[in-house]
Structure formats: structure tokens, C-alpha cells
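## tool: complex_structure
## caller: assistant
## args:
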Amino acid sequence: MTISAKKIRALPEGVSRTLIQIGMILLVFGLWELGVRIGWISAFLFGSPLGIAHYLAKAIYDGTLLYDTWITVFEATLGFVIGTLAGSILGLSLWYSPFIARTVEPIVVAFNSVPKIAFAPIIILWFGTGLTSKVALAISLTSIVALIAAYQAAKDADPDLQGLMVTLGANKHHIFYSVIVPSSLPAMVATFRINVGFGLVGAVVGEFISSQHGLGHLIFTASSLYDLNTVWAGLFTLMAVGFVLYFFIDWFERNLLPWKTNEHRQELRV
Amino acid sequence: MQIAYSNKTLITFKTNVFKPKSQPRMVSSATKLSLTGLQKSFNVKGTVLPVLNGIDISVASGGFLSVIGPSGCGKTTVFNIIAGLLEPDEGTIEVDGLPVANLRGRVGYMMQKDLLFPWRTVLQNVLLGLELKQVPENEARELALEYLNTYGLAGFENAYPKTLSGGMRQRVALIRTLISDPDILLLDEPFSALDYQTRLYLEGVLMEAVETHKKTVILVTHDIDEAVALSRNVIVLSGRPTQVKANYTIDIQERTPIGARSDPRFSEYFHALCAELDIQTRKKAT
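## result:
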């Protein structure tokens, strides 16, 4: 053990980190599979890694998993994009009228304090059991977060920069486009990360309640049949989807906000 | 109040020492900007708080006026009125002898904060004022590059402000102020966040720019050293409600920041102005 630990330390940091991460995953799955084989873990209640792998291989091969994944990703992304855009634009435009903003604020807060998932049954009633209801649920989850973040960011925009614009002869629209929007972008993009997750929550919960396709549907139906391997396969696929979406947002942020990237970040070693 | 009055006699005595009876020999041209009888009060939690209580400020064309005063005396209010960000309750503003409602678009200002837009590159920051004036893009760009070159920032056009040093950022801010060609430069301790060397250097750059572009400058500051070194006139404000307490003419011919500081009269002015502000602190303490 000590020898291998030393060897790992000698490798470049990135490589050794990846090795440790892979090792941890393999260890967990190995112990799990071992536990199932020995009989300490019930394969009926917990599934088994090999069973999961078997199901994954089959479902990828016959295309059902990809189809379900595509449905869920589509619902989540569409909901995320529409909700985030609409919320952000509304939130920013509240900056134009402090009167309207103050009037609407308690309503927004009240709406935000309800767990949006609780709207799911009504949304299914209104929008049916197809794609629309899942997208609508994802929108209801993401838009409010985006709205609050954008409004707060717009309010926090540096008043001195706005003053400078005024003395240079700018009107309200100039200030909006040249100061409010760019200075709010970082805070808004930061909520993208949260909202990508909320988009998935909306899609999956919608599918739980009523659906014919999607990863939520897959997980829900499989669990009611005690088919734990399929449940796990669905969960791991969701995890992979979230992972990919998160990195996409990360890439998007770096390209949208080049002035924010920190090239010479110094690590504080304590 | 009694103390304040007795102090006033002291001040008149002191100001007489340094205030020449006649106008100074140098630039005695027309008045560029005059603010007369400025009054401003703010509503703070229902009570009216008078801040400016009849202030007269006038600065000659091509002149350099500093406004100093104890902290909390309403310097920022004066700054905001001159910048065109606040309207006075009472008082008239005249530019070149003609009354105007406010000074928006005529004044370029610089603060201790460089106020560069972090999401804009150096070049884009410099272009801000020209964009708002809708100067054709090519023309604006060419002019901006010329300025950047003159002020030693060639090669940094595409850098973001946060990658520059404080001194460089203030130079960019100075270019941005100069390039939109306002008649009046309004400065609020523009260099006080910088180290002394950079500050002397930038004061020199500023003075040179002011001479070349024939700008009228108002410096709002609590930095007596800088006020004496750079200005031709210094106005001392009293504590709130603020009035003009004294008006000094700085009769130092040397105009470079270091040269002015080595002038034998520099310390006389410096001490006299310190005394003006010290009186304020003592008044506050009792």
C-alpha cells in the first residue's frame, strides 16, 4: 500500500487525482458486488453492479435507454432554457421600474416560498401527460430562481458606473445595456448551474407522475416492479446527464465571461 | 457657534497673509464655471438635513480649483452637483456666463475608484464616451489608439482592467475622461489609492494633459498636499451645514508635482490649510 501511495504521489497531480477517483468508484462497486455474491447484500432490494451493467448494455444496444435519456434531456433543457431566459429578462427589466418591482416583490416571494413541485399535479392536469407538462414544470422551477437572481443583480449594479454613464450623456436604455446587463451576467450565469439541476428535477418529477417515456418513467416503473438494476441504471444515466450539462454550462460561462476567468489564481496553502 | 465665530477671525487673519489683493498674474481669463448660492438638503428619516448652505464656487477658464474640507462636510454633494448627478435646491449654475440647468455632458470625472467597466477591454473602456456620442467607429478607434499610445498603454488595448496595475487603470480612466473632450474635469481624489511614486507620476501626467488640452479642473479632495501642489485656487469648506470658509490663491509658479512641492511657499500654504481643517476638528471635538 505504501509503495503504491508513493508512486501515486510521484505522478502529475491531475493524473494521480483521476486514478484515485477511479479507484474509489471501483472499490465501492467491487465491495457491493462482493457483498451480493457472499449474500450480505440483497440483490433484490439493492441490485448488483453486474446486473446494472448487464441491463445498461442491453438497453443501450436496443436503443431504449438513449431514447428515454433523449426525452428527459429534451424536456429538462427546453424547460431550463425557456425558464431561465424568461426569468432573467423579467428580473432585469424590473430594474426599469422600481415601483412595479416593489409591487411585484411580495408576490414573487410568496410564489417562491411554495415548493414548485407541489404544482406538478395541476400542471399535468392543464398540460396533459405529454412533453409539454414536463417542460412547463421545469419552467416553473427555473424561471423564479432566474428572476430573483437577475433582479437582485440588477439592483446591485454599481451606482458609480451608472453615474459615470449619466455624466457622459447616457439615457436609461444605455445604462441598461451597458451597465445593468453586463454587470448582472455573472450572478445570472451562476444561477444557470442551479437551474440546470432544477430543469432535470422538473422533467423527472413530471415523468414520475404521469408519462410514457423518459428516465423518470423508467425509474418509476422499474421501482414499482422491484427491478432495482433498472432503477440504478436510470439513476446513473441521470447522473451522467447532469454531469454533462454542468460542464456545458461551465464551458458556456468561461466563453461568455472572458473577463471573469482567473488566469493567475493563487492557491492559498494553509 | 461662539467658537466658530472666534475661529472665523483667525481665518481671515490667516487668509489675508496669503491672499494677494489683486488677481494672480497668470491665467486671468473669463470665468468658465460659476456656482452661486448652492443650497442642498437631504431628507433623512423624515427630518430635513441641510448639507450645503449657500456655496459659491467659481473657476476661471483653464483654471485649477481644489475644494477641501473636513470629512462629512458635503464634498461629495458638491461633487455630485458639479458632475450633474444631483440638482441643487437653490442656486444658479453658469457656464461661460450662461445659466444652465445642470452640467451633464459638460463634465468628465475621475474618482478614487477607476470606474473601469470590468467586462470591457482597455480599448472598449476608452471608447465608452465616444460610443455614447455616436462618433463613427473607425474614427473613434483611431483616436483611442492614439491616446493609448501617448499615455504609454500601447499593446494593452485588448487587456481587461483587472490584469492592469492600479496606476495603469487610472491612466486608462484619465484617457477615457479626456477623450470625450469635456470642458471641465472633475476629480475626486483620483490618485489617493495609489502608492506615492505612481501618484506623483500620474499627477505629472494629469498636469501635462490639462495644459495640452486646456481643461478647467476642479479637484474635490481632503488631501491638502495634492491640493497645494496642483491647484491655483483652493476653497476650504466648513463643517455641515457647509459654507465656503476660505479661499486661497496658490501663488506657486512651478507646475510640476515635485517642483511645486519643493517650492519654499509650499509648506506655508500646506500649514495654513492644515490649520483651517484642524480648527474644524477641534470644533467637532467640543
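## assistant note: The mean pLDDT of chain A is 88. Chain A touches chain B at residues 158, 160-161, 163-170, 174, 178-179, 182-183, 185, 257-259, 263 (CB under 8 Å). Handing back to user.
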